């Protein structure tokens, strides 16, 4: 009897322990991940550390339209551009990925990149990126670059590109079309793979020079540059970019600076009122003394 009871308890305990183990959520490894809307998925497969991140965009054409993409900066006075380091945090919720940096490479500004994937059906789709950079107190003047190695239709070859102004690239490959836009960017460039990633990751100073158009057909890489973004202490600026496949890209806004307000005026404190009171008292006493002298 006791033996049976003991076995029953043992079995129940084992089942409970097993259920606990199965119910535990899987541990998410590292900072990579993916987000989806309908059939379209956007994924960070690897953060580059010293160059662009590995990214995929699938479901908007017959294949993976994106090989790599990333953001780079050059603080005024630097001798080269620097890739944003691996983010401090990365969250993947529904159709939106958010990457954040509390102090980008220790350079005195924070950053948050919010990217949303959208399924346009057909197939078609886009990734819309909003990067906000905020000075941490010392003031910052910086150039920001955004880069993408787009492989339209899932093939790295066969891509042709033209440019409109300095912030709107149009791509074609057979039956597929693409748009790569960066709101209000001051310069752009196209260059065949390995293309602009090594140029923005090396030790030399480079400015995009609007060259490379019309591009291809070939293995397209492209980038945009916002020049001389000047932030007062604790001021921020928001930059937007979009990659669209087989549909028009949502229009990214030009750089938008947060309204910079100096510290609000202080309400007079007790000591201020005290000083005012003392001044009034001195005025009264002074006038009384003058009167006495005159009398
Ligand atoms: Ca292609
Ligand atoms: Ca460079
Ligand atoms: Ca390419």
Mean pLDDT: 88
Shape category: elongated
Bound molecules: calcium ion
Largest sheet: 10 strands, antiparallel
User: Over all CA atoms, what is the radius of gyration?
Assistant: 29 Å
CATH architecture: Distorted Sandwich
Determine the CATH topology: Beta-galactosidase, Chain A, domain 5
Query: How large is the count of helical segments?
Result: 3
Domain count:
1
CATH superfamily: Glycoside hydrolase, family 65, N-terminal domain
Order of helices and strands: HEEEEEEEEEEEEEEHEEEEH
The counted number of beta strands is 18
Which band does the percent of strand residues land in? 35-45%
Low-confidence stretches: 7-29
N-end to C-end Cα span: 119 Å
Helix fraction bin: 10-25%
The first-level CATH class is given as Mainly Beta
Structural class: alpha+beta
Quick recap of the structure?
By secondary structure, this protein is of the alpha+beta class.
Protein architecture, described:
With 295 residues, the protein is α+β, with helices and mostly antiparallel strands. It has a single domain (33-256), classed as Distorted Sandwich (Beta-galactosidase, Chain A, domain 5). Helices cover 18% and strands 43% of the residues. It has three helices and 18 strands. The model is unreliable at 7-29 (pLDDT under 50). The protein binds calcium ion (3 copies).
